[in-house]
Structure formats: structure tokens, C-alpha cells
Amino acid sequence: MNLSSLLSPNSSSSLALRSALPLRPSNCHSPPSACLNVDVRTPDFNPNPVTQATRSAEIIADEKKFIVGTYARAPLVLSSGKGSKLYDVEGREYLDLTSGIAVNALGHGDPDWVDAVTQQAGILTHTSNIYYSEPQIELAKRLVSGSFADRVFFCNSGTEANEAAIKFARKFQKFSHHDKEPPTGFIAFSNCFHGRTMGALALTSKENYRTPFEPVMPGVTFLEYGDIQAASEVIQSGKIAAVFVEPLQGEGGIYRATKEFLLSLREACDNVGCLLVFDEVQCGLGRTGHLWAHETYDVYPDVMTLAKPLAGGLPIGAVLVTEKVAAAINHGDHGSTFAGSPLVCKAAIAVLDKISNPSFLSSVLEKGEYFKDLLVQKLGKNLHVKEIRGLGLIVGLELDVSASPLVEACQQSGLLILTAGKGNVVRMVPPLIITKQELDEAVEILVRCMPALDQPANH
Predict the structure, then answer these.
(1) Which of 50, 103, 343, 364 would suit a FRET pair with 19, their CA atoms being 20 to 30 Å apart?
(2) Cβ(186)–Cβ(243) under 8 Å?
(3) 235 phi and psi angles, rounded to 5 deg
(4) What whole-number distance in Å separates Cα of residue 409 and Cα of residue 386?
(5) Which domains does the chain have, with CATH numbers?
(6) What is the pLDDT of residue 4?
(7) For this UniProt entry, which residues form the secretion signal (predicted)?
């Protein structure tokens, strides 16, 4: 089959061809094998390509009929997963370097996570925050003991965590300036992403995300990521309540901050009483080979927002704050019905206990270096590759063309990857439990699929 004929996502025949591809089929009679000793049900595999195409096509058609069209989904219907592998409804196997966008840090079907969730589901799932629950307090203790923070606020997602941080910053400044007008502005940076709800959206740099919903929250100043002088000058104006920054930008294109930049922000904020907020929704919780990405720099925030990997795939967000910030927050200032439920917190405890183990973190750092070295060795001389960057297991491959043809070609060959930046960066955020053998496999598929970048677009 000619790979170039499959590269256009708009091709009328691409769906049928995708479904018919006999790539990486799973065993039809037994659960797939992977690095975790947990059985995962795989879909019934029917080798008839017409039946395969029909099954996926029906599901995709129903999605278009019943779901609000906010997602430009890849035409792939996933049904099960184990370890670093995913399986579609036709039984084909994929090596997952997306982790549900950096969420499934322990991969799919981790046995300790499954045990925690199933046991807690049989005991108590939800109480609301009208009452106390033990798993929520235990998770908060673990987060505080392993970080700079003194207290935790729980929510349901990364964007909710940043919304809470916005409110906490405003309330802190009002609390600290009770005798005069408090600063209300915010600083964010180029290529940043902080979420899609109205406050977090106002802090997100991509204009095409904000424009359809303007006016968004006013008072946000966008500066160049890494520009020490510009940031210091705006902070010193005394009009900024908080600075929001990602120590390592994910969606923006896998850009790392320098220690000098973060240290300058810390010093400038301290000089005027501005809060420094680290958004570690994607780069935190072991992704860089450190529990927190900012530990790499030995620079610490007043507020940190978390979400993606914390509960292993269940919805959670968290805002970690120092005591001086917490002192400004009163009963009723913020809240959430679902946040910090016993079920989700029990899952998060299982994840955090594994990720925070020093040997686990060392393995992430080691595998990340191995992965980058392998990419440089195998792809570094490719004419389309401009730079390979990242830390730990958040790695970006910057190209001189759109990454979409490569992403689609890799999918056809059984490898799932993401884009970032302006669409020209391949973002790879595999489960942190991925093996070196699986990383070898991923790089070999990338090498085989690179010619897709030279194919003309199929209109």
C-alpha cells in the first residue's frame, strides 16, 4: 500500500484505508501482552477490512451527530490499553507516546492504580466538600510534604487550577493592600498555554484561542518567554498581582526556561509583593525526571498549579500555595462540588506514591536522556529537523514544516504522537513507565515515517 496516499486527513478514502491497514494486530484469542501484569480486554478482532471500516465509521458518524464539534479528532477509535500500548476497536496495537496528553504517567491499567480505584469505588466515591474525607486529607499531606507548599486546594482540571490561582492572587493582593488600591494585572509569556476557561484563556498566548470569545479577562500583559529585562520592568510597575509561567512549556513547543529567567522573576516578585505562579499542569509530577519541574532550577513559587497526571486519568486539579497566600482565603471564596472526591484522591495517592519514589524519578531522567540521544543519532541529520529538545520524558522534535503528515504516517504505522508549537513540533510525552525497548521501537517508526514530510499534500 502506498503510504503517501494515506497522508491527507481529508481524503475521502483515508478512513477506509486506515481501518483496513493490517498494522500491529493484537492476538485475537488472548489479552495483549505488555509490561504490566494486568489483563485488559481487547475488542473482538475481525480481519474483514469492510467490517473493520464499517465499525469505526459508524462510531465516528455517531460522534459527529451527537457530540458538540469542538475537537478535530484523529479518525481512530480506541477501546483498550495496557502499559504503553493502546488498541483500537479492530484490535490493532499502537505504541502510545501521548499518554492522553501527558496524563497517563503510569501507563494504561497500572495494577496498583486499578486496585486503589476499584476498592475505593466499593467504599465511597463522592461526598462533596460539605464534609471531610480521609483520602482528600491524605493526598494533601503528601503534596505538602513533597513540595514548597503549606496548603492545597483541589479542583477538577488544569484550567480550573489556573482559574483558582487567578482568584487567589487577586484576593491575596486585596488582603495585602487593604489600605490602598491593590494590583490586579497579570503577566504571561509567549507560547504559553494555561487553559480554555475565560480567566485561564486570557492568560493563554495564542490569539486564535482567545479571539472568538473576546472580551476575555482584561489586564494581562504578554511578554517574550525568557526576557528578563521586560519582565522585571513590568513587575516593578507595581500593577501586577501575579506572574504565571511554565518552567517548561508543553503545548507551546517544549521550551525550557533558564534558571536565570526564573530567578529574576522570583527576585522581582519579592521586591514588590507580586505572586509567582508556576503552571506545572503538564511538566510537573515526574515528567521531567524531577517530581516538580522547578526543582531543576532550585527556584520556588508562591503558587503552583497541577492536574494532568495526578490521578492517573481521573479528573483532578490542584493549587499548591504557601501559608501567606492561604491566609488571604476565607470560607466561601472558592469551591467545587466534585473536587477532591474520595475516589479521585485515592487514585491520586496511588499515582503520587509511585512517581515520587527517587528510583522511579531517576529512571525517567535516564530514559529521557536515552530517548533524546537516540533521536539525535537517528534523526539529527534529517534536513527537516531543526532541533531536538526537552527534559526527562517530555521531548520535542522541531521541524521546518508542518508535523501533521508525520503524525498521521506514524499513526498508520502504530505509533501515536502529538503536535505542539505552531504545528511544526512533534511532542512526545510517553507513559513514564515506558521501556527503552519501546523507545527504540518508537524511534524506528519515526525514522521510517520521516519521508511522509516530503510527500505533497493530498487535496
Answers:
(1) 103
(2) yes
(3) -60, -40
(4) 20
(5) 3-96+359-454 (3.90.1150.10), 112-356 (3.40.640.10)
(6) 38
(7) none
C-alpha cell at 370: 536515552
Contact in structure between 307 and 316 (CB atoms under 8 Å): yes
β pairing state of 394-399 and 385-391: antiparallel
Can you read off the three cell numbers belonging to residue 189?
509569556
| Number of C-beta neighbours around residue 336 at 10 A | 16
Chain mean pLDDT for the chain:
90
Task: Give the CA radius of gyration of the chain.
Answer: 23
Tell me how crowded residue 421 is: count the other CB atoms within 10 A of its CB.
19
Number of Cβ within a 10 Å radius of residue 41:
11
- 82: amino acid identity, one letter: K
Cβ neighbours of residue 58 under 8 Å, at least 6 residues apart?
A: none
Residue 457's pLDDT is 63
Q: Does 7 have pLDDT greater than 60?
A: no
- State residue 6's pLDDT score: 36
Q: Any idea what the Cα angle at residue 9 is, between residues 7 and 11, rounded to 5°?
A: 85
Judge whether residue 176 has pLDDT over 70: yes
Residue 419 pLDDT: 97
Under 8 Å between Cβ of 105 and 287: yes
Query: What CA–CA distances, in Å, run from 126 to 41, 120, 122, 342?
Result: 28, 10, 11, 6
CA–CA–CA angle 224, 430, 281 (5° rounding): 45
User: Helix (H, G, I), strand (E, B), or coil: what is residue 353?
Assistant: helix
Residue bearing cell 501515536: 416
23 vs 445: CA distance, rounded Å: 12
At 198, is the secondary structure helix, strand, or coil?
helix
